[in-house]
Amino acid sequence: MVEGYSPLRLLLIGSPGAGKGTQSGRIQNNFEVSTISSGDLLRRNIAQGTDIGKRAAKEMKNGAFVSDEVMVKLIDSELAKLGAEQGWLLDGFPRTMTQAQTLDHTLESLNQPLNLVIHLNVPEEVILQRIMDRWVHIPSGRVYNMTYNPPKHAGLDDVTGEPLERRPDDNPETFKIRLQKHHELTEPLLDYYKNRNILVSLSGNTSDEIYPQIRELLQTRFKPEDASEVAGQGLA
């Protein structure tokens, strides 16, 4: 942590397919934060065939969100591993008011209050097209898009060479159900964090449009990026 700056404790909120994973990776690369991705935790548990993973897979197959009980167990265990001076980013959790209130209780006990919520505002038609073009390396969670981020070799993961797959819920019918449920759950969350004065909404069609807004916000409020990293990264 840089003197004069508070540790970043950030929540990203956005529709499925809005680019939370992409933005999380960029933030993690350029700021001193640990990323806790609910999606990655779920996929890891599903791939490992844990009891929680089996429960989550059954719920997701039916187009439903994973239950609060499962999500709270996963996230609480990850947060407990971090120290009070460590910045962190939550991707995909909380998704309900029950989860948000439970998270606040956990963070209060850890003396790590949430201090920023970023809402990724991406048009629904853009998200639907993005999902139709999405392929995933299930064990690692690496995501490819056939339009703007294709694998080096069609159908294969760049790192391992293993086959890519579509997520079971990446089809128009199931995904529209997920989007509808997401909007119903997210509106109260946005109001909740807006009333706490920690919500910022950023809009764009692509991650490259939104990330410069995120970077400027975090530089101003929390910790400047390393100058050499910024020069090396460039912006789209």
UniProtKB/TrEMBL annotation:
Residues 134-169 form the Adenylate kinase active site lid domain. NCBIfam families: adk, PRK00279.1-3. Involved in maintaining the homeostasis of cellular nucleotides by catalyzing the interconversion of nucleoside phosphates. Has GTP:AMP phosphotransferase and ITP:AMP phosphotransferase activities. AMP binds at residues 38, 43, 92-95, 99, 167, 178. It comes from Linnemannia exigua. Its main location: mitochondrion. GO terms for biological process: ADP biosynthetic process; AMP metabolic process; GTP metabolic process; ITP metabolic process. It holds the Pfam family ADK_lid. GO terms for cellular component: mitochondrial matrix. Residues 133-170 are annotated as: LID. The lineage of its organism: Eukaryota, Fungi, Fungi incertae sedis, Mucoromycota, Mortierellomycotina. Belongs to the adenylate kinase family. AK3 subfamily. It is found in: Mitochondrion matrix. CDD domains: ADK (cd01428). The gene is ADK2. This is GTP:AMP phosphotransferase, mitochondrial. Its EC number is 2.7.4.10. Consists of three domains, a large central CORE domain and two small peripheral domains, NMPbind and LID, which undergo movements during catalysis. The LID domain closes over the site of phosphoryl transfer upon GTP binding. Assembling and dissambling the active center during each catalytic cycle provides an effective means to prevent GTP hydrolysis. Monomer. One of its GO terms (molecular function) is GTP binding.
